[in-house]
Design goal:
Blueprint (H helix, E strand, L loop, with lengths): L1 E2 L4 E2 L22 H14 L9 E5 L8 H6 L1 H15 L4 E6 L5 E6 L4 E6 L18 H10 L5 H11 L5 H9 L2 H11 L13 H26 L12 H20 L4 H10 L3 H10 L2 H10 L4 H9 L3 H12 L3 H9 L10 H17 L13 H8 L6 H4 L6 H4 L7
Helix pairs in contact: 1-3, 5-6, 5-8, 6-8, 7-8, 8-10, 9-10, 9-16, 10-15, 11-14, 14-15, 15-16, 16-17
Length: 416
């Protein structure tokens, strides 16, 4: 803050939104709630006038690596919000700011000129500086990525085909899972985790079937078998490592619950469509990741639609890239349509109910569990989608009630 007329200015570095306790031994200057009033009074004591003070504020960014705990606590963001609210309350105008985002900044004040500047911090190995541009791949490069991408595991494809078949029983599906030793071991470990809440120890896949049922075992196996594939998208499309996979799990679970509540689609197929709806991001992630702080800033600060940004930067959207993958893997038509149109469900060519279900589930995940995906979902289709599947706002508490599917709560995946 500075008063140019009086030639008085100063900087304050705030570390916390509020004091962590009532213990007076804590330095009150480091917290926004207590430090900002002290800072203002110190400036006034040096001859500044409140009506002439102006402020420049920077900070609250998410600095790599980011965990889900960082997103939940949001210490930097809350500190910036409190500092802004105090400045607004005191009628001190903010003439420049760089709040949030995904890269750190240096705030400087020249007491000779009373000019404040905000610059990105450049350090060896830094990724995504403000001057770095997202590299645009050539069409043949993207096609090469699609062709050479780590294939979806055969077990996952078998489960998807069997779920889509009207002549397949859950017992057949479960027996397919038993043949995969890695999947079986992970399921047994999951069943013995605290999330299941049972004293009976599971030592075999047969006991796991008794514990959680064939349906849950199947969906768990499908999720685990696709984890490595989806997690190839390191962090460009999420604010924390493993965020894209966990967002996919949440969307899958809510898609299944929506399908079950409304009867608009088979729940197991809806789960699969929700799990795979963002697979196109796996293709584009490597191009986003090199400059993900800038990409994130463009979406958040400049209010650019994700699909528009992708189209401009890469020549195709993650929905279109995912559609190509769906054709390559021979996925069912309903899943392909959900992948292609989960941002614009009213434009689906078929399987409308499935597409509307995944769109609503994806939007709710972005609203109720932000940070796992950087999408700012277009809500213009929400009313028509909810009407199409027979879902309304009164159903939302029921949708989130009870235990979320164990694959989300029980195992800590990719640091998420």
């Amino acid at each position: 803050m500075r008063d140019r007329t009086a030639g008085v200015g100063g900087l304050i570095h705030l570390l916390l939104p509020e004091p962590p306790s009532m213990d007076l031994s804590w330095n009150p200057v480091v917290s926004a709630g207590t430090g900002m009033p002290i800072f203002i009074e110190a400036l006034l004591a040096q001859g500044a006038r409140k009506e002439r003070l102006v402020a420049t504020i920077a900070g609250g960014a998410l600095i790599d690596p980011v965990s889900e705990s960082d997103l939940v606590l949001d210490i930097g963001g809350r500190t910036a919000e409190i500092a802004q609210s105090i400045l607004n309350r005191e009628n001190i105008p903010i003439v420049d700011s760089e709040i949030g985002g995904y890269y750190s900044c240096c705030l400087s004040l020249n007491l000779g000129t009373m000019d404040a500047t905000i610059e990105p911090i450049v350090y060896p190995g830094a990724k995504g500086l403000s001057t770095q541009a997202v590299r645009r791949p050539e069409p043949e490069q993207l096609e090469r990525v699609i062709q050479t991408l780590l294939p979806v595991p055969q077990t996952a494809l078998k489960i998807i085909r069997m779920i889509n078949s009207a002549h397949c029983s859950f017992r057949d599906l479960a027996m397919e899972v038993v043949q995969d030793q890695v999947l079986s071991a992970r399921i047994i470990r999951m069943c013995n985790s605290v999330a299941i809440q049972s004293r009976m120890k599971v030592e075999s896949i047969e006991k796991a079937l008794v514990r959680i049922g064939e349906k849950n075992l199947l969906l768990m196996a499908l999720s685990f078998s696709l984890e490595d594939f989806i997690s190839r998208a390191y962090q460009g499309y999420s604010l924390c490592k493993g965020g894209l996979f966990r967002h996919s799990l949440w969307t899958a679970t809510l898609s299944s619950r929506l399908a079950e509540m409304t009867g608009a689609a088979p729940p197991d197929l809806a789960y699969t469509a929700g799990l795979l709806h963002d697979i196109g991001k796996v293709v584009l992630d490597q191009y986003v990741y090199d400059a993900h702080p800038l990409f994130y800033r463009q979406l958040q600060k400049m209010d650019i639609d994700l699909l528009d940004a992708e189209k401009e930067l890469f020549g195709l959207t993650h929905c279109e890239a995912g559609g190509r993958l769906a054709l390559r893997f021979g996925l069912p038509r309903s899943i392909e349509q959900a992948i292609l149109h989960h941002h614009d469900p009213d434009f689906a060519e078929s399987d409308y109910d499935m597409v509307h279900i995944v769109y609503v589930a994806d939007l709710l995940c972005c609203r109720f569990n932000p940070g796992l995906s950087i999408d700012k979902k277009n809500t213009s289709h929400l009313e028509s989608s909810m009407t199409a599947i027979g879902f309304n706002a009164r159903h939302v508490p029921l949708l989130f009630s009870g235990n979320i599917f164990p694959a989300i709560a029980g195992e800590n995946t990719n640091g998420g």
